[in-house]
Specification:
The structure holds 2 protein chains of 2 kinds.
Chain A: E1 5-10, E2 25-31, E3 34-36, E4 39-43, E5 46-52, E6 58-64, E7 67-73, E8 82-84, E9 88-94, E10 101-107, E11 112-114, E12 129-136, E13 148-153
Parallel strand pairs in A: 2-5, 4-10
Antiparallel strand pairs in A: 1-11, 1-12, 2-3, 5-8, 6-7, 6-9, 9-10, 12-13
Chain B: E1 9-13, E2 25-39, E3 64-79, E4 82-90, E5 98-107, E6 115-124, H1 147-155, E7 158-168, E8 172-182, H2 189-193, H3 213-219, E9 238-247, E10 251-259, E11 267-268, E12 271-272, E13 275-287, E14 290-306, E15 309-325, E16 330-344, E17 352-368, E18 371-384, H4 386-389, E19 395-408
Antiparallel strand pairs in B: 1-2, 2-3, 2-19, 3-4, 4-5, 5-6, 6-7, 7-8, 8-9, 9-10, 10-13, 11-12, 13-14, 14-15, 15-16, 16-17, 17-18, 18-19
The chains are: A mainly beta, B mainly beta.
Chain lengths: 180, 410
């Protein structure tokens, strides 16, 4: 399952700032009336640049508790970097194209990674110790947290697996949706 | 989340119409042309003045290959908050070969709070159908909509203004809409004089659907007898109120109450105002790859053209549709409809009773963004007392098969 976010938080001590390992600035593209990527991991205090590479304008917005904003982008336009100062998940939409959706996962932990198409996420160079593991996915039932558990790392490669109970994905059909 | 919009051709025009925040007006079009192989019913279709329930039917029913229709939807983003939508439909059998299904402007300011409001004005469908979500007010599941949404497409279109207030969260979205409208006062005449149908012959704003020939003969007027649908006859506006409750990942519940508030004694240029009111409840949910849609409607339509005659028709219908997305290219659907109508007049012998059911099965293959191949079989089993006046059995079982090649704009 792609697009799951895995986050390690050390037990009993503060993690270093997330920006020490995660890219502080990410770009979210718009092409073919789709946000790319669907999920963006950002360290708290990180920035997002929105790049409209589409044939139409977009009005990107969020009303999520961690970040409220709106910005209109013409074709070919890039936004100035937009700061995300609170940890959590911001859901993005477009006021012109209701079907567009994306998520920004703002993390307080530098040990945060995203699964690929094979359902695997790799977090390298984690100091030995005891960690809480949190998993999040856009298709988790709303209002529910992903599975949380603990893992003890002792300086060698450790595999951790979990099963997510997700809502069904939207059908991947060729659609010619009208304005209804 | 919804699937990616595809098949929309976007153009950018110079910013000469209205100033916009981002400096340009976006215009996009989508649409299709539909070529069909039809094995029609052996009952004369209501489209040809008969009392057959289906779009295609004739006594000497023979398979036919024909252009069914084409539809083009144009949308213009005047500003990010203001968009205009217009849908044109072209079909050989419709009264005006080129007609407008809808045309309206919507203003919706962006909101960064859970609350969002919008207004739209113009000509549009009230938010009733759960099936007709695709360009040209078509269904992704079947060619022929349910009895409820066939009637919506034939008779119900408003010219007016609608306001909507939404409350949004991760867990649920709730919306309330209210509209005031006119120009939908003949709506109801088809249900009273013809009964329900299962057909995708939607009426445009300039359309004049055909009434049964048996009605024309009773009224001693020339054939074909047609009715207008978009006409204001009295000075009283109609209204509807709608609510939607979407519990994310569980189900969506829709409700609408509609009343055109027509004066049933008003007549303009030979067309009577039909006082039509209905209530509709709809539920939709997804269970894995299976989508379930259900709607139920009940209502009444009445006329009182003079002191000696009146007609009150109570109507009701419901359907359950199960659609299954097999993979990216294939989806199948099955639907069961029930419907009933009872037209009561001062002369009991002139009352018309109708009841029936329909079973529809369709398989859709979408190998590319620009082509949809649909095979649909439909069987309607109905009893309508009016058929006896036309010299045929009140009970009829109709079968129709269609193979559609729908070519979308790339």
């Amino acid at each position: 399952m792609a697009n799951a976010v895995v986050m390690l938080t050390p037990d009993g001590k503060a993690a270093p700032p997330a920006a020490t390992r995660l890219d502080a600035t990410k770009t979210i593209d718009q092409r073919d009336e789709t946000f790319i990527p669907l999920v963006t991991i950002l360290p708290r205090t990180g920035h997002v640049v929105f790049a409209n590479n589409d044939k139409t304008k977009h009005q990107v917005y969020s009303f999520s508790p961690i970040k409220q904003f709106e910005i209109t982008l013409a074709q070919g336009e890039r936004s100035p970097p937009l700061a995300f100062d609170k940890a959590g998940v911001a859901t993005l939409g477009c006021n012109i194209h209701d079907h567009m959706i994306a998520f920004v996962f703002v993390s307080d932990s530098p040990w945060t990674a995203q699964t690929g198409a094979d359902g695997r996420a790799v977090i390298a160079d984690v100091p030995a110790g005891s960690y809480a593991v949190q998993v999040w996915h856009p298709q988790l039932p709303p209002g529910t947290a992903g599975p949380a558990s603990g893992v003890i790392l002792a300086g060698e490669t450790t595999e951790f697996s979990t099963t997510l109970k997700l809502l069904p994905p939207p059908p991947k059909m060729h659609m010619h949706t009208g304005h209804y | 989340m919804r699937p990616r919009l595809a098949g929309r051709t976007a153009l950018t025009l110079c910013a000469i119409l209205l100033p916009s925040a981002a400096g340009a007006v976006d215009f996009s079009v989508d649409g299709y042309a539909d070529l069909r192989l039809i094995v029609p019913s052996n009952q004369v279709s209501w489209q040809n003045g008969g009392l057959g329930k289906l779009r295609f039917g004739a006594e000497d029913a023979r398979p036919d290959l024909q252009f069914a229709e084409a539809a083009v939807e144009g949308s213009v983003v005047i500003t990010p908050e203001l968009i205009g939508i217009a849908t044109v439909r072209v079909a050989e059998k419709q009264y005006s070969a080129v007609d407008l299904l809808e045309g309206y402007l919507r203003y919706r300011p962006v909101s960064t709070s859970p609350w969002r409001w919008s207004v739209r004005g113009g000509a549009f469908f009230p938010p009733v159908s759960l099936e007709n979500t695709e360009v040209g007010w078509t269904s992704p599941w079947t060619l022929t909509p349910s009895a409820i949404n066939s009637w919506l497409g034939e008779e119900v279109r408003i010219i007016g203004a609608e306001g909507t207030l939404e409350w949004r969260s991760e867990i649920r979205n709730v919306s309330l809409s209210a509209a005031i409208f006119g120009f939908n006062e003949p709506a109801g005449v088809l249900l009273a004089d013809r009964g329900w149908s299962l057909s995708d012959a939607f009426t445009g704003l300039f359309g004049r659907p055909r009434l049964p020939d048996v009605e024309a003969r009773m009224l001693q007027v020339p054939l074909p007898l047609r009715t207008q649908e978009i006409l204001q006859i009295d000075k009283q506006p109609g209204w509807y109120a709608a609510a939607a409750w979407d519990e994310t990942g569980i189900a969506k519940l829709n409700f609408i109450a509609y009343d055109n508030e027509a004066n049933p004694s008003a007549i303009y240029d030979g067309t009577i105002a039909w006082r039509t009111a209905f209530q509709d409840v709809g539920v939709s949910t997804n269970l894995g790859n299976v989508t379930l849609l259900a709607q139920g409607m009940t209502g009444q339509t009445s006329i009182r053209p003079n002191a000696f005659f009146s007609s009150d028709t109570r109507f009701s219908a419901a359907y359950l549709l199960a659609g299954w997305n097999l993979d990216d290219d294939w989806r199948i659907a099955a639907r069961f409809d029930v419907f009933a109508a009872h037209a009561h007049t001062p002369i009991a012998a002139a009352d018309t009773r109708e009841s029936g059911n329909a079973v529809t099965a369709a398989i859709n293959y979408l190998p590319t963004q620009w082509l949809r191949v649909t095979a649909e079989a439909i069987r309607v089993d109905s009893t309508r007392s009016e058929r006896a006046l036309a010299g045929i059995s009140p009970k009829a079982v109709e079968n129709q098969f269609q193979l559609s090649l729908r070519f979308y704009l790339p």
